[in-house]
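User: tokens in, sequence out, please.
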């Protein structure tokens, strides 16, 4: 075989080997990327959500308070259902989730500004629920005394009306105390249920509690 043909064949072989190596490398990278995406989709780096109730927990009817479009009352209610967890905090979280989701009925309006989230909940032995919201509850709030009152008492009434163990609610924002939400209603002290701005009667549990307190001061 002539020398120049041998050299040509050697060059072709080397080129073919380089091409194969390059192809294998590309395929490997593509597979790695696909595998990585699949792994991320199947195992996202987010902690699993802790269940707020057990399968054996019974359903529990609740009334969730929302602002109304009616000028005669500030807050109306929407009937809903949660599960009666033995953990009071879990019941409170279920109620707040419904409040965050907003009303189903067209006559009611959202209580919380868009993207408002609950960061933490703690309930003291004295029955005070400490609810820590993210800063969006302030930054996205439309302002105005009635809007502020509606937002605050949608939270307070929804919790105190449905959970007898909660006597009052302390609202925190961004992990700290704030003087107010929009400049009108003080948040420095825990707030109790106020049904004067609704058309709802007090729940039986609260009424009985007041009678007992009056009888045995």
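Assistant: Sequence out:
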């Amino acid at each position: 075989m002539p020398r120049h043909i041998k050299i040509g064949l050697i060059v072709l072989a080397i080129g073919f080997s380089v091409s194969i190596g390059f192809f294998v490398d590309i395929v490997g990278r593509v597979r790695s990327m696909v595998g990585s995406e699949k792994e991320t989709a199947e195992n996202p780096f987010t902690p699993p959500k802790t269940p707020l109730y057990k399968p054996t927990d019974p359903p529990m009817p609740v009334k969730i308070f929302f602002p109304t479009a009616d000028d005669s009352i500030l807050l109306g209610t929407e009937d809903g259902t949660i599960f009666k967890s033995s953990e009071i905090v879990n019941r409170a979280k279920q109620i707040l989730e419904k409040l965050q989701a907003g009303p189903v009925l067209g006559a009611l309006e959202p209580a919380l500004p868009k993207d408002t989230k609950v960061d933490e909940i703690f309930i003291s032995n004295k029955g005070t629920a400490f609810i820590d919201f993210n800063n969006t509850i302030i930054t996205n709030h439309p302002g105005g005394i009635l809007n502020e009152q509606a937002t605050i008492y949608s939270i307070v009434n929804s919790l105190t009306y449905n959970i007898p163990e909660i006597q009052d609610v302390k609202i925190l924002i961004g992990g700290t105390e704030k003087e107010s939400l929009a400049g009108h209603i003080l948040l420095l002290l825990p707030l109790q249920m106020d049904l004067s701005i609704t058309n709802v009667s007090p729940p039986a549990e609260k009424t009985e509690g007041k009678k007992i307190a009056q009888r045995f001061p």
